[in-house]
Amino acid sequence: MNADERIFIDGKINNKPARFIFDTGFDVPCVLFLTTIQKFGLKVTPPSPDYQLGPGQIAAGRTELCNLEIADTNVSTYFRVIESPAYLKFAADGILGWPAVSNNIFSVDFLNHTFTFFTNIPEDSLAWIKFCIPTNNGDLTLELSANKSEKLVLAVDSGSHSGVELNSKKWHEWSADHTNLAVTLDAYYTPNPGLVVKEESWADKISLGALKLTDVPVREADSSDIALHTSPQTKYEATLGLAALKRLDIVIDGKRGIAYLRPKKTPSLPYDHNRIGAVFVPRNLQSDDLVAHVVSSSPAYEAGIRSDDVLLKIGELDTTKWRTDPNILPFSRFFNSPAGTKLELTLKRRDKIFTTTAVLRNILPPDEPKNSD
To answer: Residue 209 and residue 223: Cα distance in Å, rounded?
Structure first.
């Protein structure tokens, strides 16, 4: 995700400035990245090797007791500590999860990256679409429907840059009904399951229970989201990432466990996406080769690039040094460039090295914003 897409909250840890990503999809109140621990001089107890992780959970250590300041709040607390690959750069020291704000009344403007806290629910929002927020979930989820045996839930994840992420069954049904739509690829990292590559398409209209969204990117949810929100009592339907949340007005009444949503009627903005139709990722977290995944009929495919080709260069940039040179990643700064951009890529296919030029184009949304009515 681009850094300017995230919502940041500034604070202090033991009087030292700290910056946090606000992530409604995170079920832990306060988390630090292992790479930032030294900055605050904190001692860390590593996770127990005997602890059995549940679905969607990740191993985490814990800091010593420390002081956290956020706005007018000053508390003594412990931070969970998670490890991420060193080559991934985060513009923050850690994460504030949903439990950190879940007892408040507030609105979030995901388009302009702002919070507004309220004493009472704004009167005009009472007429919006209303959803119950399950109180037994650590992250922000909404009940689309409920009966005695099973609840249909919708996850809200401000830590994801995507639009609507559908459960596997719904994604395959949606894809089968929209075979004429263009597809690109997205590659991203989450602590669990790790590196993920997903197809991404575009929905002019999509319905999730009573919620009807227009002009949003759509893809299949990853396995951790599905596992985390599936139980004998709940059925996972979808996740709303930032691109979908930008298409909504949202007010949360955490005290009463109610969310008020209103789909926006304003024109949608162009979506910053992968305009080459290919991603290059290691086969696993230990591998060094950046292996191609290519969509048929994409600019990459038309340039002669095929899945399993190994990326060596983008222009004069030696991409084989991606682990050791912090200036190489992310590749999105190349592949998300404006339509018409020409990229020269050098690749290896088995024992043959070749160079080709791909011309980027808009794959998903229209060139200009269009009315979403």
So the answer is: 22
- Count CB-CB contacts under 10 A for residue 53: 11
Task: Indicate the pTM of the whole model.
Answer: 0.84
Same domain, 254 and 114: yes
Burial of 86 (0-12, 13-18, 19+ CB in 10 A): exposed
Rounded to an integer, what distance in angstroms lies between the CA atom of residue 142 and that of residue 236?
10
Q: What count of Cα atoms within 13 Å lies in the side-chain half-sphere of residue 272?
A: 12
Query: Quick one: average pLDDT of 60-71?
Result: 88
Same domain, 49 and 191: no
- Say whether both 113 and 245 belong to one domain: yes
More confident residue, 284 or 93: 93
